[in-house]
Structures are given as C-alpha cells and as structure tokens.
Amino acid sequence: MSDVKPKFGLNPIEDVFEPPAPLLAGAHVSGLSSYQDMYRDSLANSETFWKRIAADLYFENASDRGLEWNFDVRKGDIFIRFMQGARTNVAYNCLERNIARGLGSKIAFFWEGNELGDERKITYQELLDQVTTLSAVLRAKGVKKGDRVAIYLPMIIELPVAMLACARIGAVHSVVFAGFSSESLASRIIDGKARVLITADGFCRGPKVFKLKQLADDAIKLCREQNEPVETCIVVKHLERVRIPSGADRPQVNYDDAVDVDYTEEMSRFAGAKSPVEWMDAEDYLFMLYTSGSTGKPKGVVHTQAGYMTYSYATAKFTFDLQDDDVYWCTADCGWITGHTYIVYGPLMNATTGIIFEGIPTHPDPGRCWNLVEKYKVTKMYTAPTLIRSLMAFKEEFVTKYDRSSLKILGSVGEPINPAAWLWYYKVVGESRCAIVDTYWQTETGGHIITPMPAATPTKPGSATLPFFGVEPVIVDAQGQEIEGPGEGNLCIKRPWPGIMRTVYGDADRFAKTYFASFPGYYFTGDGARRDEDGYLWVTGRVDDLMNVSGHLLSTAEIESALVAHHSVAEAAVVAAPHDIKGSTPYAFVSLKVGAKLTPALIDELKLMVRTKIGAIAVPDAIQYSPGLPKTRSGKITRRILRKIAEGDRKADLGDTTTLADESVIAQLWEGRNGGC
Ligand code: 6R9
C-alpha cells in the first residue's frame, strides 16, 4: 500500500495576480470592467447576447427563440431548449465554415506520438476529407441520423475524425476512454444500443503497449451475450505504423471477419465519396458521454446541437482568448468531456491549431511536456492539477531547460488546484508572465461555468474566480436558501446556459432527480463552494458520494460493487483518501466472508476485480480488512468516520459516534490501519 499522506493545503492564500499586461491589447475581453459589462449584459439580455455569439457560426435555418427552460421539478418536467427551430451542423461549423474563410491549409492538429520522432499533422482541408470519407463509411455500414456509435480510441487523429464523422451525419457519438475496461465499454455500448464500434489495435503510453483490440473483443462478446450485438467494429491499425517503446513487443492482434473491418481499407474504398452534411435540429442529440453517478451506474450525459456548439465556441474563444496564430495544447484525453469541448469542438470552431499527444508526460523523461511546448511553440496550454503536481516532484531543470517563451495562458481543470501547484505552474512553467485560468466545469455543463478571463480577471491561487457569461451561480444552504455575500454551501446555478446537458440518456427521471431534486428551482452541481468578500468562488469539492482521482470522477458505490463481486467479500466501503499527486485516491475497507483472509494474494485479486470491472484508474491504493463497518443503527455506513481513518488523522474529531450500532468497530479499524496492508 502506498502511504496515505496528510492532506496538502487547500488553504487560500490572499495574493492577487493581475492579468499580464501584454495580454490586454487585442484580447477578446480586456480589463475587468469589460468582463463585468459583458457579464451583466449576458444576464439582462440573454437572448441577444447569445444570438450575437451564435452569429459567428453557420445555421442552415435561423430561429427567433433563445433559451427556454423549466428548472423546477414542482412545476413539471425539467427541460432546456436553445434556439428551437434552428438547423445547423456542428462538424460543418468546425470544418467547411473555416475552409470557406480560406483556412483550408491551416494545421488543425499536430499529432505527437509516444516515442520521440513519431509525428503527423493534418490541415483543416485534410481533416474535412477524412471526416467526409469516414462518414460515408459509417453510412455504408447502415448508420443513420440519431443512431449511436461507440468510439474506443487512443489519442490519435482518428479520434476527432470519428467524432466529427458522426456529427456530420447526425449520429450520436459515445466516446469511451481507452483506459476503461472491457466491462465498462460493454455497459456503455449496451446502454446506448450502439451497433458500430470504432477502435484500434492498441496504443503506447510510456514504456507500455496496450492491447486495446483485445478489450474491444471482450466487450463485443459481453454485448452479444446481452443480446445487444455490435454489428461492425472498425479497427485502426495504429500499432503497425508507430515506433514501439524499447523492450516492448508489437502484440499479435486477432481479427474476426464477421465483425471487424480495417479502417484504412474502408477509407480507401470510400475515398472521394460524397457524403453530405445532415442538417440537425437545434435540440437533436450531438453526443453522449458517461460520467460517474453516485448510485454506481454511470450516467449517459446528453448534449445537443445548437446550445453545445455555441457554448463550446464561446468558452474556448474567451477563456483561452484564442487568436489566429495560437498553438493550443490541451493535455486531456478525448475520452473525457475536456477533450470533447477543448480539444475537438471549441478549438476547431475557433479555427485553432491544436496538439494531440498519445504519450505520457514522463516519457522518455519528465521534461516531455516542456519539450513539446518548445517544439510546437505552444501559446496556450490546458492541463490538470494532478499532472502539475506529478511534475513538481522532479527537478525544475526538466522545465527550465526548454524554451517556454511562447506560452501566454496556462489553464487548469478537473479539480480544485492547490495554491502550491498553482504557484509552481505560474512561476516555474509560466515564468511569472502568463495568465492562469482555473476553469471550473463538469461533463454536465458542456463548457466552463466559473473561470477567469485571462486578460480581465485578477486571479487568486485556488479560486476559479467568477462566472462565465450567462451563468448565474448561487450558494445555497442545506435548506435550499440562497446565501448572499460571503459564505459557504452547495454550489447551484439559477438558470441555464446554452451548453448545459439536456438529459441522462434514456432516463429523464434520473436527470431530474440527480440535478434538480435536492434544491428545487436550481441546477445542483454536486460541489460545495465558498464565496469570499470579493465575490470570488472557491470550489471545495464534491459533497456527494463521488470522488475525484487525478481529475476524474469516480463513484464510491461503483468501486464497492466491483469489490463485493468477489466471492470472498461480504461488504465493502470505499472512501476518498488524500493523495499528494492524485488529489485523492480510493481507500477500501472490506469485511470478508467466514473463512476468508485478506492475504496479499486476495488483495491482488480484489485490485484486479476493480481493474476489470471499471479500469485501472479506480483501483484502490489501499485495501484494509475491517471485521465490521461502522454503521448507524439504521444500517447506514458512516463514511465520515472511515474517511478520518483513511486520512490517518488520529486526532480528528469523529463527531458523534453514539448513534453507531457498535462503537468498538472504530478501535478495530484503527488497529487494522496500523498493521497496514
Ligand atoms: C471538466 C471536468 C467535474 C467535477 C466537478 C468538480 C471537479 C472540475 C474544477 C473542479 C474545482 C476546478 N472540478 N474542475 N473543482 N476547480 N477548476 O472535470 O468534468 O469529469 O465531469 O468532473 O470535477 O468536482 O464537479 P468532470
């Protein structure tokens, strides 16, 4: 077990950093008062505000409607609509619209492989050609408007190509992170009833080669057993064209002619095919993306056309102050919402040159990121606190030996950024001359909802600062009363913005219950937040049973159910323990069935169980034997006590323990922690 360290400080520091002066000239939002004017306008004249932004984009049919909604479960069904009646196509706006403006030969993406020297690039025109051809392939496989297509690909150019090809023909993509297990992939394919899967033979990360096709095959088998067969599996033979890390082998890959087709062969077959854009209604589905749910089962978050398009375009433009000559690098994976909105849709709609990186920041050494910054002259970088913390652990020389003078804006996303990481990012990476934008948002919000504007908002390390245009955040107490002025409570949003999710795929009830039932009339984020005297917002983290590991949300219930699926486990409780680099990490307490013992072999089996059911990211760092779990007399596990034990904080106030069915459990758990595991 790795050591669970005391929580790193999230203590606010009072320093305020003004926007870097050189950014102000020519910025889309320059100076705090411009932000304030625009923000006020976005609330007071919401319809004209958003129409003005949408006017930069192409609509086949216009609409005279703005945002329409019901956020109050007491008044009927929850709904959100934007520009009802308009017709558009998001892929068209990413590609043809830019090409028509003369940008066909601009680089859309540089691709950087895992191994040094492996690289490709693609222009807007080439990207359009590939997207059109793949969309013809999909059509030939029977994919029609509204059908779901599952995408299980590593960070290669074919990933955005696949997403955009779906968007072009109105198919709903469901991207599954390539680090997820075959069971996770299968459950997502089944939930969305996807009949086509796009995957790859494998990929490289650091010294390792991952056999993705094997996992896809296992998932296809599981789907068949559940009577939800995948009819076509399009396979990118990626490993055949890249360098393999030294010491690793090029794996043997199996193909099944009944299901598998070769991506490259299909693309040559359909090269030059006309595959017209499908004009989509404003509220037709664009994509679904699964995110952890506190009950364990992931939720398919649905985003639609006009609203997501306008919002991803606007947030990318303003938060990163995107300009024509930018080279923008978002280190996220397209398997997460950050990759959807800020690698693919937002940047492409802004005609930005982006970077797609297959590898990891520490391969071949911890200077890789800064090597990339120097090589591509990156101007705007967007990453996660967990990556910053992991790189802080190495000598500064890994950063400073590369030229970072191109950098202007440094973004952070995924979890609250602790001030030490903020300051390192600012001082060491950004040489104290770049703006830091700590962007708070969620899969559900589609794009940033609380974030600084780089040339306008003074920043405070650890605070996501102020709301984006059109977003009206409120802090409410446990009774649902708004807290005015400084205070702390539950972070809710009072009205919709165009990019907010529209439903949980196939489960409108769950949508209403999860986000709108706790505080009627508000969208509830699931996070806690504090507002300071300046009106700045400090997101304090999840207040529900979700945990944030390296910026990724995981459900404690989902990990628990993976553990209890093992025949030796009677009961399991998982809590978040603080971790220096990952922010937090799953810490599991398990009680075993009679006769079972928590041997190192069993611990390995339990870890494997979680790895196969969910994925490597969810594997607990610590698994502790617990003869019993602390429960109230009504049988509820008291997680706050387990959390204190996981934190190793013996002096902590455990609160009232008299309601426990058996108080002696606590002493036993402390003892078990001593023994370690
Ligand atoms: C974009 C993304 C959403 C949850 C969210 C919150 C946490 C994200 C944050 C942040 C504080 C930030 N979170 N960004 N907390 N400051 N800048 O990460 O989406 O994977 O759905 O996670 O992540 O807890 O509720 P998603």
UniProtKB/TrEMBL annotation:
PROSITE patterns: AMP_BINDING. Transmembrane segments: none annotated. One of its GO terms (molecular function) is ATP binding. Keywords: ATP-binding, Ligase, Nucleotide-binding. The keyword S-adenosyl-L-methionine does not apply. It is an enzyme of class 6 (ligase). It catalyses: acetate + ATP + CoA = acetyl-CoA + AMP + diphosphate. GO terms for biological process: acetyl-CoA biosynthetic process from acetate. Residues 558-636 form the AMP-binding enzyme C-terminal domain. Its EC number is 6.2.1.1. The keyword Nucleotide-binding applies. Pfam families: ACAS_N, AMP-binding, AMP-binding_C. Residues 101-503 form the AMP-dependent synthetase/ligase domain. Residues 35-94 form the Acetyl-coenzyme A synthetase N-terminal domain. Belongs to the ATP-dependent AMP-binding enzyme family. PANTHER family: ACETYL-COENZYME A SYNTHETASE. This is Acetyl-coenzyme A synthetase. It comes from Plectus sambesii.
